[in-house]
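Example S7 (structure tokens).
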């Protein structure tokens, strides 16, 4: 078995979730199995993401929080902590829950990791950028100017501000994930990517419904997003904890390209060997004021740290996802 390129035991919070389980899968591919996975399994089906994976221990999130508060060494010594656990629902309305779960727990875990010498890499979010009016710059970001459009984004933003205020951003890494899609997101229900939901809709009806545009600068279907395949997302994430990586601060994690929903839709139909049939539907009133019409990650700061892997082209990634995971209903590692 190859040596652990991260140097020791790994903690992955949110490890049964979408990006977290994909990260464990990528660690397994490197021969790493000394992993503690933490999550809140609840009553959905995300436990299925763990079945094909290899790891040393599993602990429920609240138990992890309590035991670390009582005894910082409760789970042993870690070389790296990937804190990907959070409530990621952009429609979640319980602000108190989001502040406790996404902000306060991240503060506690970061302080613990720093006190023990573990490398701390956490999930921030592109949602912190809001409508993009203040740019999506990760090089010299005036993050206090950012205005997230939903409480999820704000809960992430609050920790970014806290980490900067305490000087932690010189020692830890915060990753602003853009629109990540791919295997192991089935449990996310309505928060699944459009690829996951569209594949079902197309196979059932032969058509795909996309939101109409309510901004005259963008035609229907011309709204643009930076879509990132989860396999690329986890390689970028692991880069920040591999031996020799000394980068710190906030980084955009995206493809570096903006594609339209029509382009994405065409790729899904192509992966299913079907002729595109797209209709435009009304966007719910509640979403219109919070809708991002354009996102594109500038990933030059990531590249400057030495990350040189190519990003999987959109059509290739969608084809891999649809044909190898969605149609056969398979998870990573299965």
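Recovered sequence:
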């Amino acid at each position: 078995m190859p040596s652990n390129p991260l140097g020791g035991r790994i903690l992955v919070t949110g490890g049964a979730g979408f990006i977290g389980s994909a990260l464990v899968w990528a660690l397994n591919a490197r021969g790493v199995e000394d992993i503690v996975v933490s999550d809140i399994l609840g009553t959905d089906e995300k436990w299925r993401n763990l079945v094909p994976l290899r790891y040393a221990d599993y602990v429920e999130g609240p138990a992890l929080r309590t035991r670390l508060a009582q005894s910082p060494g409760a789970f042993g010594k870690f070389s790296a902590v990937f804190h990907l656990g959070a409530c990621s629902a952009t429609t979640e309305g319980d602000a108190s829950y989001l502040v406790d779960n996404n902000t306060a727990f991240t503060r506690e875990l970061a302080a613990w990791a720093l006190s023990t010498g573990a490398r701390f890499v956490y999930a921030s979010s592109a949602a912190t950028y809001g409508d993009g009016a203040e740019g999506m710059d990760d090089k010299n970001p005036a993050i206090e100017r950012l205005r997230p459009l939903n409480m999820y984004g704000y809960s992430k933003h609050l920790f970014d501000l806290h980490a900067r205020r305490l000087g932690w951003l010189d020692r830890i890494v915060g990753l602003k994930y853009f629109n990540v899609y791919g295997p192991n997101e089935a449990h996310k229900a309505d928060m699944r990517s459009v690829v996951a939901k569209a594949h079902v809709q197309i196979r059932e009806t032969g058509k795909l419904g996309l939101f109409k545009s309510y901004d005259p600068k963008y035609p229907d279907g011309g709204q643009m997003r930076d879509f990132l395949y989860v396999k690329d997302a986890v390689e970028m994430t692991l880069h920040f904890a591999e031996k020799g990586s000394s980068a710190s601060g906030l980084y955009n994690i995206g493809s570096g390209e903006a594609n339209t929903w029509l382009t994405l839709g065409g790729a899904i139909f192509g992966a299913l060997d079907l002729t595109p049939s797209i209709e435009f539907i009304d966007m719910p009133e509640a979403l219109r004021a919070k809708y991002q019409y354009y996102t594109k990650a500038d990933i030059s700061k990531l590249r400057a740290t030495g990350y040189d892997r190519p990003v999987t082209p959109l059509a290739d990634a969608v084809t891999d996802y649809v044909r190898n995971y969605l149609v056969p209903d398979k998870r990573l590692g299965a």
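Notes on this example. Residues 10-180+227-254+297-311 form a domain with the Rossmann fold fold (CATH 3.40.50.720).
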